[in-house]
Design goal:
Elements lengths: L6 E9 L3 H22 L12 E5 L13 E2 L2 H6 L11 E2 L2 E7 L4 E3 L13 E2 L2 H14 L3 E4 L3 E7 L2 E7 L2 E3 L5 E6 L3 E9 L6 H10 L10 E10 L8 E7 L8 E7 L4 E9 L9 H10 L1 H6 L4 E11 L10 E2 L2 E3 L15 H21 L4 H4 L1 H7 L2 H8 L3 H4 L4 H13 L42 H6 L13 E3 L2 H11 L4 H4 L5 E6 L2 E6 L9 H5 L5 E3 L14
Parallel strand pairs: 1-2, 1-13, 2-8, 5-15, 13-20
Antiparallel strand pairs: 3-7, 4-7, 5-6, 9-10, 10-13, 11-12, 14-17, 14-18, 15-16, 16-17, 19-20, 21-24, 22-23
Bound molecules: iron/sulfur cluster (SF4).
Iron/sulfur cluster binds next to α16.
């Protein structure tokens, strides 16, 4: 194929247009503007800075690939927007919140909401709308924002990151160029900021090169499956419900949520820890069970499904955070593990990580030095930040729940009393996929039956329709299976091909070709949640970005 690639040079490149990247770009642009005004008015010595800042995003629109609950702690945006008039387009202020324990048919309200789940003063929001607004603010501050540009590869020069290569477009399923072939552009940058979300492709490459995770605990994930509903009755916006129990068992960490928004919209979903043991676990199916519970069924009665999605959530906390810098590289937001799993919140931490990164980038631009030494100031800033103080207090929270619900309750109570320390500090954690049991050791499944009625409950393919997912069909699969024969020869026998269950979009299928089983990858169904890379028991799946703009469209979420 032609190597005649377009080249673009920028000063700072942000990969991913989530809240972390966009906050970094906005804060940096404002620091530069303040600096230039101070230099012009001779309040400060120095040169006028005119760097080119560029955000690239794989979704066809800003917000199309962004998914979260979301109840937002406004701390991050309040700090980011100081001095600006623009306010985030929150849906509603939280007026009421409650925690329920669900059995199969009953809902018991907790007498009080535990402090980590108290949301008074916070806001219910659509993260898709928030990032759209944030991208517009960035553009108003002279940051270029390019949606539909997936980055597939980090460019290195020796031990330095010098930019990224975008995916090629117009390549056929057979790997051959089509008439519309265009090689992906190379974007060279003094610093590349990775804000790709959890399990980022470029982060994986940087990790291999620099060993960013070599000294941290393994990251542990959950998957959130979410639906947006519209009901045709008056709803008070800003009511937040969290639930424990049904449809999850005591050995699975997770719970349900439902938030009311404006115009009769309800966010509802289920978060399931990706260290479950039963390979038959199917988070999409569990979400359908959740909606059969009378408490949820009543909430969405007479309503219609608007949108469906899923996303991995990095829950390991501070002990699982990688090194956040290298020569020419910074890592922000979910990519760096900025998430408080006890509070189920990461947006404010993503924004705060972005602001710390922006201050470091500003210094690097002034000094004209993007070495690891200069960029290490980001971690130094993090060490004395509010974000770090918050994460330090819950440093063993997720780890303690890997040993079951009651062990988790016991240890987390002790941790709360001892500022996060608990009985064992650091408490070890095991990568989730290694805990999956072989089918031969399983008891009969106790999962309740789901009758997909197409009104309240939907089978996977019908749900997928509501994610508005589309990919160019004639392109190589973006899901690379290192050895598909393992799927047929080993995995069917040992784990019963759990990819058919854990993928929330029916991407993986075992079909029959006469007597022969055949492993089929329906990559155009993929909603980019990354669960397969995380939960595949043999770790042979590699998710890579498809051709520009492909994927779900969650801007309503
Ligand atoms: Fe998620 Fe993987 Fe399925 Fe895509 S193929 S939807 S990334 S589990």
């Amino acid at each position: 194929m032609s190597s005649d690639r377009e080249q673009l040079e920028v000063d700072v490149l942000f990969v991913g247009a989530g809240p972390a990247s966009l906050s970094t770009a906005l804060h940096l642009a404002r620091l530069i503007k303040d600096h230039n005004q101070a230099v012009e008015s001779r309040e400060r010595e120095g040169d006028i800075l005119t760097p080119v800042l560029l955000v690239v995003e794989k979704g066809k629109e800003i917000g199309a690939h962004t998914l979260s609950g979301a109840v937002v702690d406004p701390r991050g945006f309040d700090a980011l927007l100081k001095g600006l008039e623009s306010r985030p387009p929150y849906e509603a202020k939280v007026r009421n919140d409650a925690l329920y324990y669900l059995t199969e048919t009953k809902a018991f309200r907790a007498p009080f909401t535990p402090p980590p789940l108290q949301n008074h003063g916070y806001y219910v929001a659509s993260l898709g709308q928030l990032v759209k607004w944030l991208a517009t603010l960035c553009e108003e501050h002279e940051v270029d924002v390019y949606p539909g540009f997936p980055a597939k590869e980090i460019l290195f020069d020796g031990d330095s990151v010098i930019g990224v290569r975008m995916t090629d477009s117009g390549v056929g399923r057979d790997g051959e160029p089509k008439v519309n072939y265009e090689p992906g552009m190379d974007v060279k940058a003094k610093v590349t900021v990775l804000g790709e979300g959890p399990k980022g492709t470029l982060f994986g490459q940087a990790d291999c090169k620099f060993g960013l995770s070599s000294e941290s605990q393994p990251q542990i994930y959950a998957v959130g499956v979410k639906e947006l509903w519209r009901v045709d009755r008056d709803l008070e916006p800003g009511v937040v419900y969290h639930s424990l129990g049904f449809p999850l068992g005591l050995n699975e960490l997770g719970g349900g949520f439902a938030y009311t928004m404006q115009d009769g919209l309800i966010d509802l979903g289920l978060v399931v820890g990706l260290d479950y043991k039963d390979p038959r676990t199917d988070c999409h199916l569990l979400l359908q069970c959740f909606k059969q519970h009378p408490f949820i069924r009543n909430l969405i009665a007479g309503g219609e499904l608007v949108s469906y999605g899923a996303k991995a959530i990095p829950e390991g906390g501070i002990y699982a955070m990688p090194r956040l810098f290298a020569d020419g590289l910074l890592v922000v937001g979910d990519s760096g593990g900025f998430l408080n799993s006890q509070r189920l919140k990461g947006i404010h931490l993503a924004v705060e990580s972005g602001m710390l990164a922006a201050e470091t980038l500003f210094e690097a631009l002034v000094k004209g030095d993007s070495s690891a030494q200069t960029l290490s100031a980001y971690e130094a800033r993090f060490k004395s930040s509010l974000a770090r103080r918050e994460l330090w207090k819950v440093r063993n929270f997720r780890q303690s729940f890997q040993r079951g619900f009651w062990s988790g309750m016991f240890h987390s109570a002790l941790q709360m009393l001892s500022g996060g320390r608990g009985l064992i500090d650091p408490m070890p954690i095991t990568p989730g996929h290694t805990l999956m049991r072989r089918t031969s050791s399983l008891a009969i499944s106790t999962l309740p039956e789901v009758d997909f009625d197409g009104t309240t409950t939907f089978d996977k393919l019908s749900s997928l329709y509501y994610s508005d997912t589309s990919h160019e069909e004639d392109q190589p699969s973006h899901l690379l299976i290192r050895d598909p024969q393992i799927c047929i020869d080993k995995c069917s026998e040992e784990f019963g091909n759990p990819c058919q269950n854990f993928c929330p979009a029916s991407v993986y299928e075992i079909t029959r070709d006469g007597e022969q089983p055949r492993f089929q990858v329906n990559s155009s169904n993929c909603i980019h949640c990354k669960t397969c890379e995380i939960m595949d028991p043999y770790q042979i799946i590699l998710w890579t970005p498809p051709e520009g703009g492909g994927g779900p469209d969650w801007k309503k979420m």
